[in-house]
Specification:
This protein is mainly alpha-helical. It is 56% helix and 3% strand. The chain has a domain at 108-214: Cytochrome p450-Terp, domain 2. α6 (108-120) crosses α9.
């Protein structure tokens, strides 16, 4: 029984023989190993062509910017999972990555789509942004790439990525649109929502020529390195169970209790 759409049953990413491995048309051993960086390799894998020096530095900056931000939910998930199942490092990494969604870490693609929608509308850019933001608000949807629960006044990573874009000469329409939207949003919401790192990354990378469809993979790739670091630290200095204990201390039970039940601390 046939399932799914018609397919050419082909891949253009890689192939191999017993003596040679080809990736995007290049010999892995002769052309790539020891000759290009992992950032360049990532661009080659995703896009199919070697990046320019400017594109390499832009992607590298984005990866560094989003890799680590403390004990965020994805990191806690990874460390608690490893504490419970130390035989499965890959499971702990996967647990962390599964927590990379539209609220935390995974908004880069949605933010890029928001910018693209504002730019594709044509006409006056400010008017287009006002229309798109108003539609999101009327649908009670968040504005992807704006606002941060911790960096309320300014996301320092955004500021640095703006500097990188200017240094590289690629401060283009996507970044300009993103910053203009930051000005327009308070006119609709009544409060300032700063351009956060998940909005700055697609602004930088789209101006550099990186595809929107590959945008969600950027923070996932970057956070993978961070999760590996946290799991290594968890092996050396375990805090996973301490995280669960902290949760027990701040979260109280509010349901019904049977007669005679006397609440106690778990340790007791």
């Amino acid at each position: 029984m046939k399932i799914g759409p018609n397919s050419t049953r082909q891949t253009s990413i890689s192939t191999a023989t017993p003596d040679q491995i080809v990736i995007r048309g290049k010999d892995l051993c002769a052309d790539l190993i020891g000759k290009i960086s992992f950032t360049q390799h990532t661009w080659l894998l995703v896009i199919g062509a070697m990046p320019t020096e400017t594109q390499t530095r832009a992607l590298d900056a984005a990866l560094v910017a989003i890799a680590e931000h403390g004990l965020v939910p994805s990191v806690q998930a990874a460390r608690v999972t490893y504490a419970a199942a130390p035989e499965a490092v890959q499971g702990a990494v996967a647990a962390g990555l599964l927590g990379c969604g539209s609220v935390i870490l995974g908004a880069a693609e949605a933010a890029g789509a928001f910018l693209q929608q504002c730019m594709d509308a044509g006409g006056d850019r400010r008017t287009a942004i006002h229309k798109v933001v108003s539609e999101l608000r009327s649908e009670k949807k968040a504005i992807p790439g704006y606002g941060h629960p911790y960096h309320k006044a300014h996301d320092p990573r955004t500021g640095r990525l703006i500097e990188v874009a200017r240094e590289l000469g690629i401060f283009g329409e996507h970044f300009k649109t993103a910053l203009l939207a930051e000005e327009v949003i308070p006119e609709i919401t009544g409060r300032k929502l700063v351009l956060n790192v998940s909005g700055a990354i697609p602004s930088l990378l789209l101006d550099a020529g990186y595809p929107l469809l590959g945008m969600k993979g950027v923070p996932i790739l970057a956070r993978t390195a961070s999760l590996i670091a946290h799991i290594l630290e968890e092996r050396q200095n375990p805090i996973g169970f301490a995280l669960t204990e902290s949760g027990s201390e701040v979260i109280s039970y509010s349901g019904e209790l049977p007669d005679g039940f006397v609440p106690q601390n778990i340790e007791e």
